[in-house]
Structure to design on (856 residues):
């Protein structure tokens, strides 16, 4: 196919006419699809329904250690759940606190706690003139929303295929005491789908922050969310807690994970892993904030999934559903956009997103055109702090919720919009 | 019986010898009982086990409105749960947000939010030199722990049989702009067991606070926790939200409740009720903090309890278990302490506590003596801000967890300790 940049003005004008017609036809189909959030499809949620039988009125409601999960007590979760969540993250159970129905809340509460009470005894951030976070981007909009809500200044860090630009991270962190954190989705990153390289993880672990209360917010949301069964198509990541220990920075990282996209979205369990000192600090305010998380739901999860083997088998059933959706999109992109020079996209081995980079200045217009034809995408810019993509180029595609057929139809519309907006930009 | 105050020194000394022996005998029994927290007994939790069958792998996991409870979405809870929790509080569903597994967390988060973001746009409390809360006491230790953890100054307000001393509340609230809140357990108060009178509720609703961001924290934890079936032994309370509306103070109150002592302690659902403006303000930060609470557990609760009728029937089964425990304690107290003039106790119609007032300066010693004989009580002083009971007199008794027989044994020990410590005080 001929790249758009090589076309004459007349060719582009002819193409524009064609595309306007194609777009009108697509609009006429009256699509009504939502690709805005990384939501599991109903058929994925059906996979978790067997878990609903893990506990019933006849069940023994005690942990192996004899704790009645129906009563108060147990701030950090039942031991079985600590073990399971630790296994997902690759850390020992004693480094884990099991929390409520979403890791988002742990992250918010961790930042809120740092604002109000400081970090392991440091000055509360609300007493400081300036607090900054590094934000590798494109990244996860809900991370940026947390820091923005507290008035924390966000600094964009470019992403490479190996993770964040570590030269920049190292320099900024070592120079500026007001930099207190960095948001990371280290595996199957949201939205890029890449996994941080071993070197990146080691450089994170070896950071020499100017601020003693600097922490890495390691949101391992997709730790086990592979799309493929083959070992060589499953990304691996170095375990950050032990790397930080080795590097003499045992307290520098908080790791988060959940079963939101394992069991049920919003009715799973979540966890944070960190050093003994950090967890002790967490518990100091948790003991005031909560009587502990829902232990019945923790028991339900461990009775059903049992162990990592059970979890991984379950995740392969998810993969079987998700894979065709990702491939449907990528197939359409390759067929329709290959060689045109008007967009680049990722082909992730896992996670929930495909990341698309349009020509500069085109993302918002593409998302708007999709919306006007019935397909809702994540808002352009959402993958950047302050919803501001400086290049107006990145679009996050969330293929999980529609069916593969719907996904293909949505992708067809998307490519028409990409082409149309790109041509219009070139004709300007 | 002869009051201790009428005894001669010789009589007291003889009594002291007797009591030392009785205490040694009691110690020799090797009791091991915990009356420290308002924890449901295992047999009460068994009552909730049928709820575990309300949802299974074959269940329709959609709300009446068609929302899939297994997926993301729905910040304020499913409509059915809003209705049920609203009914418990006597307020319409549209004034309710259903939250996680404990109302304690809503209260903590509400104070934390006010610290960081202010109240409906007011100055965040963390930016103020001074923030104060009124604390009717004896009261709930976990309330006081929240305000203490944020460095909020707590002011003791005496309790009467009709609720807090409203003369004092009205005066302080109208004069001091740094007073931002008051903690209330308005029905079957923790630990006094009294219910605020209609006049008290109306005076609360008609407060004229100097601070626009003053709020009443109305923790209706025992709204439906009667001990008796007879209507005349069930306390009633005026509904505060509508009283506040009538008085022109629609935004002045937050009401909290939960099913912690209805279904499971720590695995129930909780809710906050307030005005539209207040809930809108809550949601502004909730939408950053959470993806919504566990809707599967909400659905489980409404499928099982169905409506207020179902809830009240269930609560009567709880009452049947709790009543004998309360009565066992009160019987022992009346038999052993009646007429001695060394203690007063409450006879509540509901809730989870009996409140005991010893002679001034005796509470700590009594609790310590109980502990040394194997019976753990709530720490003396815990019912006051800063754990400081100025009179060292109040002891909270939580009869729910042991069996009635254990409760009677514990009460026997308790009265020996009361007598012993009282005599020792009088002999000093």
């Amino acid at each position: 196919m001929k790249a758009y940049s090589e076309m004459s003005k007349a060719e582009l004008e002819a193409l524009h006419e064609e595309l306007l017609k194609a777009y009108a036809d697509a609009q006429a189909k009256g699509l009504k699809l939502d690709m805005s959030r990384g939501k599991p499809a109903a058929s994925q949620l059906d996979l978790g329904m067997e878990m609903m039988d893990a506990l019933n009125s006849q069940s023994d409601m005690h942990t192996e250690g004899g704790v009645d999960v129906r009563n108060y007590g147990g701030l950090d979760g039942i031991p079985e759940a600590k073990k399971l969540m630790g296994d997902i993250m690759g850390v020992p159970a004693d480094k884990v606190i099991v929390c409520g129905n979403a890791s988002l809340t742990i992250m918010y509460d961790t930042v809120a706690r740092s604002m109000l009470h400081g970090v392991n005894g440091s000055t509360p951030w609300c007493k400081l003139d300036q607090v900054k976070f590094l934000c590798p981007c494109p990244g996860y909009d809900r991370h940026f929303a947390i820091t923005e809500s507290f008035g924390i200044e966000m600094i964009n860090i470019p992403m490479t295929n190996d993770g964040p630009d570590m030269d920049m991270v190292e320099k900024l962190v070592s120079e500026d005491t007001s930099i207190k954190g960095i948001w990371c989705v280290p595996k199957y990153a949201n939205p890029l789908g890449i996994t941080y390289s071993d070197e990146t993880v080691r450089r994170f672990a070896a950071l020499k922050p100017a601020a003693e209360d600097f922490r890495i917010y390691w949101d391992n949301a997709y730790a086990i969310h592979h799309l493929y069964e083959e070992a060589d198509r499953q990304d691996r990541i170095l375990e950050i807690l032990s790397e930080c220990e080795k590097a003499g920075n045992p307290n520098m990282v908080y790791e988060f994970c959940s079963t939101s996209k394992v069991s049920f979205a919003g009715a799973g369990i979540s966890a944070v892993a960190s050093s003994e000192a950090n967890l002790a600090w967490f518990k100091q305010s948790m003991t005031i904030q909560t009587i502990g998380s829902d232990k019945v739901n923790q028991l339900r999860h461990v009775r059903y999934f049992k162990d990592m083997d059970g979890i991984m088998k379950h995740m392969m059933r998810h993969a079987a559903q998700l894979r065709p959706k990702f491939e449907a999109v990528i197939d359409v992109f390759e067929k329709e956009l290959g060689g045109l020079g008007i967009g680049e996209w990722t082909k992730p081995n896992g996670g929930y997103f495909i990341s698309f980079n349009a020509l500069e200045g085109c993302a918002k217009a593409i998302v708007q055109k999709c919306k006007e034809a019935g397909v809702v995408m994540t808002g352009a810019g959402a993958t950047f702090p302050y919803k501001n993509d400086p290049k107006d180029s990145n679009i996050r595609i969330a293929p999980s919720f529609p069916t593969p057929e719907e996904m293909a139809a949505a992708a067809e519309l998307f490519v028409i919009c990409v082409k149309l907006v790109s041509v219009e930009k070139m004709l300007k």
DSSP finds 13 helices and 13 strands in chain A. Chain A touches chain B through 58 residues (CB under 8 Å).
